[in-house]
Amino acid sequence: MRFNFKGITKRWIINGLGTVILFLALIVVAFTLITRNYYYRNMESSLQIYANTSMKIFERYQEDNASNLEVALRDYVLNFDDKELVELQLINKDGMIVLTSSGFERNDEIAPEWEKISSSPEKTAIWKGKSSLGEGIMSICVKMGDSYGLRYVSSLKLVEGQIRNVSLIGVLAALIVLFFVMLSNSYFVSSIINPMKEIGRSARSIALGNYTVRIEKRYNDEIGDLCDTINYMAGELGDSEKLQNEFISSVSHELRTPLTSIKGWSETLCEIGIDDPAMTRQGLEAISNESDRLARIVEDLLDFSRMQNGRFSIRLEKMDLLVEIEDTVMLYRERAKKENKRLKYVEYPYPTLIIEGDKFRIRQVLVNILDNAFKYSNSGDSVRLEVADMGADIQLVVSDTGIGISQEKLPHITDKFYRASKDGGIPGSGIGLAVVKEIVDAHRGTLEVESIEGEGTTVIVTLPKKPDKDGKDQDE
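The chain above was modelled as a monomer; its predicted structure follows.
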């Protein structure tokens, strides 16, 4: 597998693989040291047994201070049974080697460990080093009286060879483990890097506006969750772009209609002058109505801009809710007559209903909800408005007997740009209920919409009489 040694791969090599290599190296070193110590201890034990045996054998000579000690020592050295395994040497009082179990007389080498026991009460001393020939050896020297000593010498060649073989086995085992670790981890790293590369390519494509891109989900883990999230984001962005395009088209149409009407009536009035009072009045009323409609569209756009920029706010003050309701109802009574619809306002039993709220925003809520109720109902249908005191809260309920909303569309009607009836020829920008929800939320209230397609819709706005301000009581 070919790696690009940067990013996740680099971190894996430095952190993951580097840690494994260091750990395996420590294990091999520790295993080698333990093995070396084990073999050396065994050799020391063997040499110590020889030393203990010789001390027992020559114990009586040392006690009697027999003059024939040297003869006995020479005879013991020359007839040593294990000379093939261990070399036995006779040492004089100066530490010189005078005789070996091989039968050679020597006076050219001093036993290094003799100095440790020659002038001390210790009977034995162990030494490890190299002989005069450069061979690694381990020896133990045993003091025999004041003038002689026996030295057992064992070569380390075989032991060091065994230690070397064990070390090589440990290194080989570590390399095998490292190979499988690299093999498994390389697969694991590639399972991260390859999807991440694909995610990066897809994200760049999405950033360039290609919202049809989808990432294949290969694993049910965090990477798979990330793929699902990006696929969901792409879908949402695509839907959002589609809604925005529809919104722009809808708003363009919404703006064009009143402007066309205003321009047409203006030209008509300019032509007929004041000679036809009835036509003049009709034209001025049309211009006034279309201007109001245009103002509402512009206000919706301004509110939408504030929502997008996080600058949407309210000013809380004491207000009489009934005044705002009655003024709004008066505006829609004339519309109800023109459209042959019935508007019923269930009057509140008391003269006032004082709450804390933004009266301009609450009127905007009423206007938008009533406007939708009239917009989505047919000639002969009815719209009902009532207010109820719920103790700490008040409820505004607007219900109509219009065309209703299907259940699959109902959850989306407060989404920005969403229009429940896109192909029904019903005008609208698609942000009216989104603004309503924003205002209600700012008052710490709730907005509920219930609807049955073909039977009508009910909108329930619940507002606290004294909302928790929490920074919302401020100017725009």
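The first strand starts at residue 87 and ends at 91.
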